[in-house]
Amino acid sequence: MNSSSTLVLIIVVIVGLGFDFTNGFHDAANAMATSIATGALKPRVAVAISAAANLIGAFLSLAVAATIAKGIVNQDTVTIEVVFAGLAGGVAWNVATWYFSIPSSSSHALLGGVIGATMIHAGASAVIWSGVASKVFIPALFAPTIACAVAALATWLAYRISRSVDEQTNKTGFRWGQIGTATLVSLSHGTNDAQKTMGILTLALVANGTISSDATTPMWVVIACALAISAGTYIGGWRIIRTLGKGLIEIESPQGFAAEATSAAVILTSSHLGLPLSTTQVCAGSVVGAGLGRAEPVRWGVFGQMALTWMVTLPAAAMVGALTYAVVNAIGSTAGVIVMSLVLAAFCGVLYMLSRRSPVDPSNVNAEWDAHGGLSHEPQLAA
Questions:
Q1: Percent of the chain whose pLDDT exceeds 90
Q2: What are the phi and psi torsion angles at 127 (to 5°)?
Q3: What is this structure's pTM?
Q4: Per residue in 118-132, is it b (16+ CB within 10 Å) or e — as a string?
Q5: Mean of pLDDT values over 268-296
Q6: Sequential DSSP letters for 51-77
């Protein structure tokens, strides 16, 4: 391995761990938004618990990592530059949707970036479309729908079973229950989402000739990805936590308990089956189901914007991945990767600086959701 290829591989690993970090703060809402919204956990305590559970969950299974590494694109056609471009597409979409406070799918952003870069490099035939359909599109269609239905039933049962309990005891009991279910969602998130970057970095190592195509994910990749997603989770994606916790419904403790239990069950099942589904979509579906189970108003405008974002995530990230690969290819491998890494870093830095004009943090994450989506001068969702 020459020095140029080593440098490119190092950059790809750094960008990959950067994606994992964004996945952590982008999806912290999945596990803890409802517990924070109901007051079951203080914001900082919630993200600390979630970070620890994500770290543990990342070591429990490699089924999803295997799917990402071998079931989406043809390994024989993938180059290290393709992997870099795919990661760039995922990072760019994650940061953009975080800035606009939209809970989008990190999974689909990553897969879209890789698919787009692969198609520009080797054509559509290099994508395993049957794998994309069975392991991405079908779970994306059914998982949030199933989560919504199960959460609605679980919410109805929670209120039905506890109807004779006095209000304060009821609230306290379900809040304690939420601590357990929210931790379980974080654990399940680690078993699913941390695996995706592990799979992509394994693909990069195969493309670079560092490991063989039939090799398992190296342990250093597992450890690095587990630490990166845990660190990102601890940072707390407060903008998205606010949207999921306060934007869809006015949630109560029994609803939060039901939504979290449902999300954990669906995500753990998918991880066992090796399906890299979107934990964001599952958790959002569960929150909507919790509202329907209580016959409470759902802010369909907010959910509609989320659903629209879900639909465009994969193709949008694919376009970014394709464009990134085209630029890298035009400039040249090593120089192109360096240039586009700097462009990506600048893009993320600009959005971060813009976000500081109207910050969302633990002090205001639970502020009431007003007619325009919340905080003044913040990039807002419609109510």
A1: 34
A2: -90, 135
A3: 0.85
A4: bbbbbeeebbbeeeb
A5: 82
A6: HHHHHHHTTS--HHHHHHHHSSB-GGG
